[in-house]
Amino acid sequence: MDFPQGMAFEEEALPRTGMIVSGALHLGVIALVLLSPFFRSRDSARTVATTEVSLISPEEFAALTVPEASRPEVPRAEIALPVPAPEAEAAPAISPERPEEPQSRPAAAPLTPPEPVAEEAPKVETPPAPPVAEVEDTPPEPPAPEALALAEPPSDTPTPREAPRVAPEPAAPAPPEALPDEVLREEVSQSPEAVEKKPETEPTAPPEASTEIVTEAEKPASSAPVSSPRPRARPARPAPPVAVAKAPPAEAAAPEKDGKDAMAAAIAAAVEDAASTPAPVASSPAAAAGPPLSRSEKEGFRLAVSRCWNVGALSAEALRVTVTIGFSLTRDGRPEPASLRMISASGGSDGAARQAYEAARRAILRCGARGYNLPIEKYEHWRDIEITFNPEKMRIK
Amino acid sequence: MSIKRILPLLVLVLAGLGALFSGPLTAQERPGPLRIIIDEGVIEPLPFAVPDFIAENAAAREYAARITRIVAADLQSTGLFREIPKEAFISSVTSFDAPVQFGDWKAINAQALITGAVSVSGRRLTVKFRLYDVFSGAPLGKGLQFAGTTASWRRMGHKVADAVYSRITGEGPYFDSRVAFIAESGPKNARVKRLAIMDYDGANVQYLTDGRALVLAPRFSPAGDRLLYTSYESGFPRVYLLDLGSLRRRALDEQPGTMSFAPRFSPDGRTVLLSLSVGGNTDIYSLDLATGNRRRLTSAPSIEIAPSFSPDGRQIVFTSDRSGSSQLYIMPAGGGEPRRISRGKGRYNTPVWSPRGDLIAFTKQNKGRFHIGVMQIDGTEERLLTSSFLDEGPTWAPNGRVIMFTRETAGAGGTSALYTVDTSGRNLRRVPMKGAASDPAWSPLLK
Q1: Which CATH number characterizes residue B145's domain?
Q2: Measured between alpha carbons, how far is B272 from B289 in angstroms, rounded to an integer?
Q3: Which residue, B145, B169, B193, sits at the end of a domain?
Q4: Which of chain A's residues have a Cβ under 8 Å away from the Cβ of B25?
Q5: Is residue B295 situated within a structural domain?
Q6: CB under 8 Å, gap of 24 or more: what pairs does A19-22 form?
Q7: What is the dihedral of CA A342, A347, A348, A353, to 10 degrees?
Q8: Could you say which of A25, A96, A374, B315 has the lowest number of CB atoms within 10 Å?
Q9: Do B222 and B150 sit in the same domain of this protein?
Q10: CB spacing of A271 vs B11 below 8 angstroms
Q11: Chain A residue with the nearest C-alpha to that of B7
């Protein structure tokens, strides 16, 4: 802002008496506050006593407030703490008199803890070994040798999994996605069906606890097998089911007095009867057929016969004959010689067909002398057999 | 109706159905027979056992063991059978009529068992035998009995072997047969060649000529009682007919200035085919043995030689170089337009029609090697069975399954020998003989 030319301010001297009075009053009030006990706090003179407070969850609090009787017994290790030794009676009192020949500095004597008398000093009890934690869970049985061909476990002592801390009560293993926390919280996720939306929170669980701390020295031996047991022999083929004579109806199946129970018993008997139909006996011609031979089983049988089908001694004409032979096998896979018959023959004279048939018959009988390897449970599928011997590939071109 | 009342009924129905379907199967419900197709087998010798035939009297003791060995050797020589040595036998055969312990023979994997007995009464030799299929535990066919003189004991053995061989294989017999051949002796540049005859296995060699004249290519008559052969007795090759009973011989078609060779009987034995060289041209002629009439079957300027009748006598296969090299042709027995059947590379010679009529054997020369081969009569499916420095002159066994031929080794000291081979190309064997031999001709089966 531009001031008009020619105007000037002139400083005027003010009176200073008020300022002096005000300053003096202020100083007086400050001095009063500093020196007066009225403004001094009572606690300020005390030492502040701090107490460690730990936050606990309501669940933990509830657990702690459970009556003693209902709380499960938790084995506790009783540890006898050393009791401070009482003052020995023979302890030298502070003597006002200076010993005549002071050997050491007498002033230091009362400050030195009195030496305990051997007889009267309390014994320091060695803390007993902590009791072996008894885990309520049944220890895992060593794997059955039949089930696992591993060596036996190195020790009979159960080897609980090592946990980083010991809690009064063992905590269940936390789900793998849970974060360690002191409070167990259920996972809450947004669900479209949820009426009330809750804020999404990560699942938490207290860290897994154990009933004991397994030190490194007590670490169980490795569970790796320590020996290589000989493999067990292949289990014998199960014996064919044997027909069991049907027992007379049990008393339990007898009609009850009550009509309702009689109906239920009849239903139960009918169901049981259907379920317990005698297993098919392979030797019985009426045995259940069961599943047919697999392709590999058929192929195995085919190979077994073909390796005995020797066409080297056949005439050229007989090598043009395709012959089909029917026969039956016994339960042990042996051909029944009397059942061998020529079903059909084509491609040659009767004489050539006879040669072809005889060569095929020799093959069936020779390789089946000890029984063909066929599944007994499928006996009905290979009891009767028809084999067509086609020598086309064996023919001399 | 409430569901509580329906449920028990439903359970009952289901239980009944379950019992029905899990119950025993009737014969009609049993699955059908397992059907298998086998199209591949094995080709291996069939193991057989032939214990020494029983000598039914003291005089037969000598022959019984020998005949047994003949049977075993014949069967083994085919390559289709394998004899199980005596040392492996579990049981012995002490009586021809004793029951056979098949279990003992199965145990040593004998698939065929031959038992026999021999008896001698004066000069009369009797051999009887039985053949068993061990694994079926039954005889194969009926037992047979042969009778003859003691001098023919080898033939007895061959007869037994023929019967066994035919019964098992279905092929015709051929052991009881003979082979005419050219017996050779002396160095290669001064070789002596004689006409000879022997059993098929090289035994009983008999010489029919003295070796003063070069002889070639003997051929049996269909009855096996006569021989045709080519001799240089006159200085030129000429065909002769030899009667094996009387050993009388005569030259055929004696015309001056001609050369005749490579003769072959017709199936009926009345006609002879031969190659006749007249005026420098060689053609095939047929000659009626009864009348001596000659008929020219080919007239080409080329060389036509080595004719062979088909078993039915209707066709003739021969060699001709009309195409520039030796090839095989077939023409009607009465002559006509030849049809070439050989189409492979190399030169073909000495065709011989199989007694079965299905194959033609031949000699083939290609790339410096000689082969014995067979082909279908239309020239297809040519198979070379052998290969060597020099294989030639095939002749068929009476059953048409085995071929005998000459194999000559190379070099100045090379010799000729007779070999047999199966038409499959297997079982190449040298005929056991003491001297060198060539030009075999297999006889028909002896009567």
Answers
A1: 3.40.50.10070
A2: 7
A3: B169
A4: 286-289, 380
A5: yes
A6: none
A7: -20
A8: A96
A9: no
A10: yes
A11: A267
Tell whether A339 is within 8 A of chain B (Cβ).
no
Q: Closest approach of chain A CAs to the CA of B37, in angstroms?
A: 5
How close, in Å, is residue A261 to chain B by CA atoms? Answer: 12
Query: Which residues in B lie closer than 8 A to residue A350 (C-beta atoms)?
Result: none
Does A308 contact B at CB distance below 8 Å? yes
* Residues B133, B98 within the same domain: yes
Same structural domain, B331 and B374: yes
Are A381 and B34 an interchain contact pair (Cβ–Cβ within 8 Å)?
Answer: yes
- What confidence tens digit (pLDDT) does each residue in A79-103 have? 333 333 333 333 333 333 343 443 4
Contact of A335 with chain B, judged by CB distance below 8 Å, is answered with no
Q: How many domains are contained in chain B? A: 2
Give CB contacts under 8 A, 24+ apart, made by B30-34: B30/A285, B30/A286, B30/A289, B30/A380, B31/A289, B31/A292, B31/A380, B31/A381, B32/A384, B33/A326, B33/A384, B33/A385, B33/A386, B34/A293, B34/A298, B34/A301, B34/A381, B34/A382, B34/A384, B34/A385, B34/A386
Helices (H), A336-394: 350-367, 379-382
Touching check for A394 and chain B: CB below 8 Å?
A: yes
Q: What is d(CA A144, CA A234) in angstroms, rounded to the nearest whole number?
A: 17
Contacting residues of B for A362, CB less than 8 Å apart: 111, 133, 135-136
Contacts of B106 (CB under 8 A, 6+ apart): A369, B134, B135
Residue-wise DSSP of B323-389? TSS-EEEEEETT----EE---SSSEEEEEEE-TTSSEEEEEEEETTEEEEEEEETTS-S-EE---BS
Determine, for residues A386 and B36 on separate chains, whether the beta-carbon distance falls below 8 Å.
Answer: yes
Q: What is the pTM of this model?
A: 0.64
Bigger pLDDT: B256 vs A340: A340
Q: Do residues B386 and B402 make contact, with C-beta atoms less than 8 angstroms apart?
A: no
The answer to whether residue B17 scores a pLDDT higher than 80 is no
Would you list the domain boundaries of chain A? Answer: 295-394
The correct answer on CATH 3.30.1150.10 for the domain covering A295-394 is: yes
pLDDT in tens, B122-179: 999 999 999 999 999 999 988 999 999 999 999 999 999 999 999 999 999 999 999 9
**Quick check: A362 contacting B, CB < 8 Å?**
yes
What pLDDT was estimated at residue B18? 47
Structural domain contains residue B71: yes
| Shared domain check, B269 and B243 | yes
pLDDT tens per residue, range B196-246: 999 999 999 999 999 899 999 999 999 999 999 999 988 889 999 999 999
Residues of A in contact with B19 (CB under 8 A): 273-274, 277
The Cα B155–Cα B70 span in angstroms is 9
Q: What is the DSSP string of A67-105?
A: -TTTSPP-------PPPPPPPPTTSPP--SSPPSS-SS-
Stated as kind and residue range, the H or E segment containing B274 is strand B271-278
Q: Which of B12, B41, B424 sits opposite A270 (nearest CB)?
A: B12
pLDDT in tens, A353-381: 999 999 999 999 999 988 999 999 999 99
Q: A382 and B34 in contact by Cβ < 8 A?
A: yes
H or E element at residue B13? helix B3-21
Q: What residues of chain B lie within 8 A of the CB of A382, using their CB?
A: 34
Classify residue A156 by its DSSP letter. S
- Give me the residues paired with residue B264 across strands: B273
Chain A partners within 8 Å of B168 (Cβ): 313, 355, 358
Domain enclosing residue B109, as ranges = 46-169
CA–CA distance, A302 with A293 (Å, rounded to integer): 12
Out of B12, B25, B135, the one facing A289 most closely (by C-beta) is: B25
